[in-house]
Design a protein that fits this description.
about 200 residues, alpha+beta, three-stranded antiparallel β-sheet, elongated
Length: about 200
């Protein structure tokens, strides 16, 4: 199988958005609404129609030297798009941390508190946070680095804002990934019969 060089970041983005999707808030009248999730700051028209909502922004990429190993060896998982029934080898990938800023926006204090509760209790917990990447069947570490309140006023209305800084573990491949050669299961040896051989003994 020809070697392939795997991308990164795209699957982490997709998984993080899926993780944050599904939060629902309600008000005193029991009206419920889903909390939208967007990459970056949405357009004003969309934003005005979609409160409350959450944005995701990738803000930094750094090498995680504590996880660093060098050399060439077998990968302990199957990267996306490769045959999971065989082993794969590569120069060991560079461990990196993807730092994201997750921001929630709400017009009502109850919505704000519901979003805070959901994010801190199930989505981005203070301890043991994980992010499932189905493309390579890995479970990444998610670390909540901090939370800051940034409530403000916009258009004469109160806007409740929460900033969450998180770090997601990832790996960056710089060399091609090669599948191991298939194991030999059967060897067929054909033996031919040799006759009429005259051997003259030495004198």
């Amino acid at each position: 199988m020809a070697g392939v060089l795997m991308p990164f970041i795209l699957n982490e983005d997709k998984a993080l958005k899926a993780l944050l999707t599904g939060i629902t808030v309600s008000d005193f009248k029991s009206n419920s609404r889903p909390v939208g999730v967007w990459f970056g700051q949405p357009d004003v028209e969309i934003r005005n129609q979609s409160y409350p909502y959450i944005t995701i922004e990738l803000i930094d990429i750094t090498e995680d030297r504590a996880r660093n190993n060098r050399g060439y060896g077998k990968l302990n998982y199957t990267p996306e798009g490769l045959d999971s029934t065989v082993d794969h080898y590569s120069e060991l990938p560079v461990p990196v941390d993807l730092e994201y800023q997750v921001v929630s926006y709400a017009r009502q204090p109850m919505h704000d508190r519901m979003i805070l509760s959901s994010i801190l209790s199930t989505k981005l917990p203070l301890r043991y946070g994980t992010l499932e990447i189905p493309e390579d069947n890995t479970l990444r570490r998610v670390e909540l680095l901090g939370h800051r309140k940034r409530d403000t006023t916009e258009g004469g209305k109160k806007l409740y804002v929460n900033l969450f800084s998180i770090k997601v573990s990832s790996e960056l491949f710089y060399s091609k990934i090669v599948a191991a050669a298939a194991a030999i299961e059967h060897v067929n040896i054909a033996l031919s019969t040799v006759t009429n051989i005259n051997v003259t003994p030495p004198a």
